Amino acid sequence: MSQALRSPSTHRFPNIDPATGQVLGTYVEATPSEVDVAVEAAQKAYLSWRKVPAPKRGEILLKAMELLKDRKEALARTETREMGKVLKEARGDVQEAIDTAFYYAGEGRRLFGQTTPSELSEKFCLSIRSPIGVCALITPWNFPIAIPSWKIFPALLCGNTVILKPSSDAPESAIQFVRILQEAGVPEGAVNLVLGRGSTVGAALTQHPQVRLVSFTGSSQVGASIGAGAAQHFKKCSLEMGGKNAQIVMEDADLDLALEGALWGAFGTTGQRCTATSRVIVHREVYQHFTERLVERAQKIRIGNGLQESTEMGPLVNEAQLHQVQAYVEIGKNQDGARLLCGGKRYTEGACADGFFYAPTLFGEARPQMRIAQEEIFGPVVCLIPVRSFEEALETLNHTEYGLSGSIYTRDVRRVLRAIQEIETGITYVNAPTIGAEVHLPFGGVKHTGNGHREAGTAALDIFSEWKAVYIDYSGRLQKAQIDS
Questions:
Q1: pLDDT tens sequence across 362-388
Q2: Would you say 402 and 378 are in contact if contact means Cβ atoms under 8 Å apart?
Q3: From CA 169, how far away is CA 84, in angstroms rounded?
Q4: 293 pLDDT exceeds 90?
Q5: What whole-number distance in Å separates Cα of residue 379 and Cα of residue 303?
Q6: Which helix (H) or strand (E) holds 461?
Q7: Rounded distance, CA 137 to CA 97, Å?
Q8: Residues 6+ positions from 203 with CB-CB distance below 8 Å
Q9: Strands 381-387 vs 277-283: parallel, antiparallel or unpaired
């Protein structure tokens, strides 16, 4: 099943614990020729897997769900060690995969098409879903179990075979996940794993002529390149990319609730979520009071190794991400001229000295056009932007090239309904933070965040299957649609 586990390649890369800087292990990086082997295995398996009845494929997903439940704690600890998120979040990551498996196992007995009347007599019309073929799945490190599950489970359910290329910052989570699928009964070759850099392994995979679909989660820059390449070869392509998400806090909001939402949305997963709250747009009437409370609470966040149950925020995933966050903080201070309210530096206290920790950082009196308010930082850095009206709040939220998630806190139902209509995002929350998607609803965004597809729920079935219209004429004579009528 896993080509990476059998790879003869000699080039290895380290897996580093971001909380301690220690090397957890080294892993073999696949070569382009080994990608070819993985694709060939997937193509061979596709010929038989596509013929397995969908309910039977769903039963295998149900077995995978049970195995994920049994190993939830072990998987969560693996996640925390290799990418840093705190244990309670890592457990939630695995739970999301459990929920996803349960959802798509049920779809195995639905996978609905449509029946519809024909305009001609003695003719029966219906539509069915058909699998696509070999799918390349490229996933990030921040949700190393959940995001692969979003892609693998619906892909397999629809009758496709897959090749997973996870981030090099979270290889062990992917290996353990693929082993669970193998134990659940996914046949040899239906799921393949290749490890390595996106520039080599990922490129060889997405450009392979036998790969018919590419599903990518990552940066908008890389996604744009993948999308352009897929278009040249007529591959189906699903892109889930960056975000610059904002939470609006109106003057009539429950400020206690809005405060908790901003803290969780901004600093959950150390701000390393595509849905993270990186802008908080606050009405002038409550701006000073809300800002003071947010700064006070941010400074009290318990930072440390995510394996400790008391830790509230873990490290950034690697040294490069640490440098990127620091670079944006310097841009905020020096180029943008924003007011640094707290944080703005590496966190090195106590046992955190050797890890990639960064203090929760807040910029006040930010303006919508600032780089730190426009560009995705992917770290615990938040811009507080004051506004004077509901209309200005909406305009400020939409003033970005991204459009993944947006949030508004208000008690006014008229504002709620207008916000739902006018916020330019694929996900909108009311009196809740910008994070917290559920697996049975579509996930994705607009503008530079995506290319029109959605993951999760029934929307993912439209990514991993093709519609086929079927016409059955039992009249015994030639009938000509439109012409005969």
A1: 999 999 999 999 999 999 999 999 999
A2: no
A3: 10
A4: yes
A5: 14
A6: helix 459-463
A7: 16
A8: none
A9: parallel
Residue positions counted in the chain: 485
pLDDT digit string, tens, across residues 110-160: 999 999 999 999 999 999 999 999 999 999 999 999 999 999 999 999 999
What pLDDT is stored for residue 9 in this prediction? 62
Catalytic, 240? Answer: yes
Contact 402, 376 (CB under 8 A): yes
Domains in the chain (CATH in brackets) are 4-241+450-470 (3.40.605.10), 245-430 (3.40.309.10)
Task: In whole angstroms, give the CA distance from residue 27 to residue 13.
Answer: 5
Q: Which of 274, 312, 352, 383 is an active site residue? A: 274
In this structure, is the dihedral angle defined by the CA atoms of residues 17, 198, 135 and 39, taken in order, positive or negative? negative
Overall average pLDDT of the 87-98 stretch: 98
Per the annotation, the verdict on 319 as an active-site residue is: no
Q: How far apart are CA 432 and CA 284, in angstroms?
A: 20
* pLDDT of 216 strictly over 60: yes
Residue 361 Cα to chain centre, angstroms? 24
DSSP string, 133-192: -EEEEE--SSSTTHHHHHHHHHHHHTT-EEEEE--TTSHHHHHHHHHHHHHHTPPTTTEE
Residue position matching structure tokens 């073929």 = 133
Cβ-contact 393, 283 below 8 angstroms: yes
Tell me, rounded to whole angstroms, the distance of Cα 262 from its chain centroid: 20
SS3 377: coil
* Residue of 34, 96, 240, 312 with catalytic role: 240
For residue 268, the 8-state DSSP code is G
